[in-house]
Write a structure and sequence with these properties.
There is one protein chain. This protein is of the alpha+beta class and about 160 residues long. It has 2 domains: about 1-35; about 35-155, Nucleic acid-binding proteins (OB fold (Dihydrolipoamide Acetyltransferase, E2P), Beta Barrel). It contains 3 helices and 7 strands, in the order αβαββββββα. It starts with a helix and ends in a 5-residue tail after the last helix. The model is unreliable at about 150-160 (pLDDT under 50).
Length: about 160
């Protein structure tokens, strides 16, 4: 092989190797920062490993909000009207949004502990009366559809 062809081949291999390493490191870094979205039903069914960082969305269940003023701990339950997941949040990480209340759509970031309680590091609430996170809206619509299908089956004499 002639010297100029060998140099050209070496340059092409060097650039290809460099691009492969760069793309691989970029994809690895991005995979570490992806927070998957799960519904309370998916969390209750065990689709999430304890300690795995993810986002959960649903409605704050009526009558579930409990505040501990001595250590700023807040506990509440989120629901998609099929399953409920308890959430613990410490306001020393940041105060809850002004629009946070029972019956409100929320998205929380954090992880599930070994007891099945979601330990939130951030809680987000919708910013006006007409807005709901697209993930939460899709999850709520799917839950309502499942609930409607379940009731239509039971009306036809099927047992769930």
């Amino acid at each position: 092989m002639k010297a100029h062809r060998r140099n050209r081949l070496g340059l092409i291999l060097f650039i290809s190797l460099g691009l492969s390493v760069t793309i691989g490191l970029t994809l690895y870094a991005l995979s570490q920062n992806i927070n998957m979205f799960f519904t309370p039903t998916q969390v209750a069914q065990g689709e999430v490993k304890p300690g795995q960082a993810f986002r959960i969305g649903g409605m704050v269940k009526e009558g579930s909000l409990m505040r501990n003023e001595s250590d700023l701990a807040v506990k509440f339950t989120t629901t998609d009207f099929i399953s409920d997941v308890p959430i613990a949040y410490n306001e020393s990480l940041g105060i809850l949004p002004d629009l946070f209340r029972e019956g409100q759509g929320i998205v929380a970031e954090g992880s599930v502990d070994s007891f099945g309680v979601f330990q939130a590091t951030k809680v987000l609430a919708k910013h006006d009366e007409n807005y709901m996170s697209p993930e939460v809206k899709a999850a709520m619509d799917a839950a309502k559809l499942l609930q409607a299908e379940g009731s239509s089956f039971s009306n036809k004499g099927y047992v769930e």
